[in-house]
Amino acid sequence: MNSLKSTCVILVLAGVLYGVYVTLNGPEKSPSSSLSQQQLTEMQPPAIDFGQGAANGQPSLPPLIDSPPAASTIPVVDQQGIAPTRDIPAYYPAPERSVPPLVEPVEATIPETQPSGPAPFATEPSDPNAGSSTYTQPTYSQPIEPSQPQTAPATPTTAATTPALEAHKLKQAWLLVERHVQDNKFRDALAELSPFANNTYLTPAERQQVLTWLDALAGKVIYSNEHHFGEPHRVVGKTQTLYEVSSMYKVDAQLLMNINSAVVRDSAVLVPGTELKVIPGPFRAELSVAAGELTLFLGPLYAGRFSFTVGDEQPPAGTYQVREKSREKLYVGRDGRQLAANDPANPYGGWWLDLGNNVSLHGSPATAGGPALGCISFSPQDAQDLASILSVSSEVVIKP
């Protein structure tokens, strides 16, 4: 019995010793053999393409299209103050491209619809209102002094980058304008381009291209009889007049008369059921005395431009409102000199718009020569157009 137990113990010990031998003398196993080559590759950080601009420390930008050429059939008001022609081109010039376009070239045909009313077009490079920011010093239980004062970027750097940024914005706007025109969304195209009307960072060529398109778009959207501001106004009842309709929309009755001349013969008599094109007013004006130019806006939309001269009554800069409109106004100079309303030498001409504080917009004398009198003088035709566009309470901003 004892011999059997001894034999079993010997066999167990032999097995254990054999296992130890194999473990100590066997081949070593590679620690990385459990990971495949593909898994090792996937553990690497992903490669990120920041574009070509990353080499210069700036993000790359999407490809852009160039703005349309300056060629246009719309003349601009000349320096002599001649009233602009109201013709609207039958097409918008297709943009010339120096880079591959994102969309197919568009040659949008526009119906040859002339505005029945005035479609004034003129230019104003006024300085845009610079945004401002304020900083409120936080309150602490004990005053904290910064270790290093913060300094604003140098002015040359800001001035050097702003024109490039504005040029980029303009190129992006051209792309959207082209798409809107292709989709017959002319009001959207006008809204997209209107912020560049008085952008001082544009080059002369860029500004001319912008104004060429703005003039045509404004003539079609605002001054034609096409409906681009929602549903037309439908005349109800037998007593409604054009003056009542114009009061509802805060525009001048004469402007609505001009726009709807095809269906309205008498502003005091409207046929029930007549559909009128209406626009939400009032218009506003921005004047640059230095440039001698007035720009009209209808809300955010560009609405035309005029040139003017300043007489012996220099207008102070500020914000005004049209208080009164009058035809053939008696002129009374600062020296007490008076000129009758029908006097050819009357500097007010045929129209006079009072802004208050001895500031006014008016026409020009029928006779040339002599010293420039009055305040802000426009050509006879332009003064008539302004009188039919600006309504009482319209805002007028005068800049130096």
TrEMBL record:
Any one Gene Ontology molecular-function term assigned to this protein's record: carboxypeptidase activity
Cross-referenced CDD domains: YkuD_like
Pfam family, one: YkuD
Limits of the L,D-TPase catalytic domain: 276-399
InterPro entries: LD_TPept_cat_dom (IPR005490), Transpep_catalytic_dom (IPR038063)
Positions of the UniProt region annotated as Disordered: 109-160
Entry keyword Cell wall biogenesis/degradation: yes
Protein name, entry field: L,D-transpeptidase YkuD
The organism of origin for this protein: Anatilimnocola aggregata
Chain's gene name: ykuD
